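F.,

This is the one I mentioned.
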């Protein structure tokens, strides 16, 4: 419990055998449910995760690899069902500093935001830590995602470190989440369409000497650009519809079964 609120952390993991145990050890004791989603890893990630003595741990698995976005959706559904009031995402590769977790939880737990996400660009010295390829891609996508989602003050669209309340989870789970690396952009567009309150929280960028990434720039760029362009188109259509028919907020989705 965090100040009386039930907290879950979803940990997507794919081939993280060297880091998953450390990641699980680092999750603060106030977290009630730790939901690892092993996505058909071939290196024993799931086995190592199951060995952890962590209280409240559940290890879920996909029979075949479905992508990080699909894994997070699986974890979100399990957290919702477990009754979590605030559900966070922390990657299985120890790239999210547990010291930042309570700053993400706080605004969501106490009604200032439906969804709080990390912003590594608000961290002093980010450009000394973040690789140039990541910084450039992220700045471009952050601007495009602002246009697609309507959140003009939200930046670092590619940061997956986030906390969501039950209403935000109901919105996210009301349709299929983009299954691969574009999922944070998809989530922001969907939250924006429903008028959810999204807040940026400064978090520390972590790129240690053993950093490795599953992202292959050549394969992620086209689907990601398509996703944000579709988001922009959908937002434009909603704007036109509003002009013609008057304000029509999207109905709030039913909670997941
Ligand atoms: N379940 C699942 N997790 C995945 C998959 N791909 C990546 N992940 C996990 O998602 C987290 C982030 O993946 P990375 O490839 O490091 O991407 P990133 O951290 O957003 O970006 P970098 O800055 O390049 O490290 C890690 O914990 C991965 O294990 C997948 O297909 N399925
Ligand atoms: Mg990573």
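My design for it:
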């Amino acid at each position: 419990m965090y100040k009386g609120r039930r907290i879950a952390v979803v940990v997507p993991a794919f081939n993280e055998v060297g880091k998953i145990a450390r990641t699980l050890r680092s999750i603060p004791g106030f977290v009630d449910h730790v939901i690892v989603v092993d996505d058909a890893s071939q290196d024993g990630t799931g086995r190592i995760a199951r060995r952890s003595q962590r209280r409240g741990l559940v290890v879920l698995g996909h029979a075949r690899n479905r992508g990080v976005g699909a894994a997070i959706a699986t974890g979100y559904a399990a957290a919702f069902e477990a009754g979590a009031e605030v559900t966070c995402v922390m990657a299985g590769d120890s790239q999210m500093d547990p010291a930042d977790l309570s700053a993400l939880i706080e605004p969501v737990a106490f009604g200032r935001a439906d969804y709080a996400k990390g912003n590594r660009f608000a961290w002093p010295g980010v450009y000394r830590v973040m690789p140039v390829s990541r910084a450039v891609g992220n700045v471009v996508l952050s601007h495009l995602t602002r246009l697609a989602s309507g959140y003009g003050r939200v930046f670092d669209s590619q940061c997956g470190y986030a906390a969501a309340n039950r209403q935000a989870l109901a919105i996210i789970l009301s349709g299929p989440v983009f299954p691969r690396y574009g999922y944070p952009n998809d989530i922001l567009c969907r939250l924006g369409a429903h008028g959810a309150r999204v807040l940026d929280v400064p978090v520390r960028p972590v790129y240690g000497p053993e950093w490795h990434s599953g992202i292959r720039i050549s394969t992620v760029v086209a689907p990601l650009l398509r996703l944000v362009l579709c988001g922009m188109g959908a937002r434009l259509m909603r704007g036109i519809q509003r002009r013609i028919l008057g304000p029509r907020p999207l109905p709030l989705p039913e909670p997941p079964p």
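The first helix runs from residue 20 to 26.

Talk soon.
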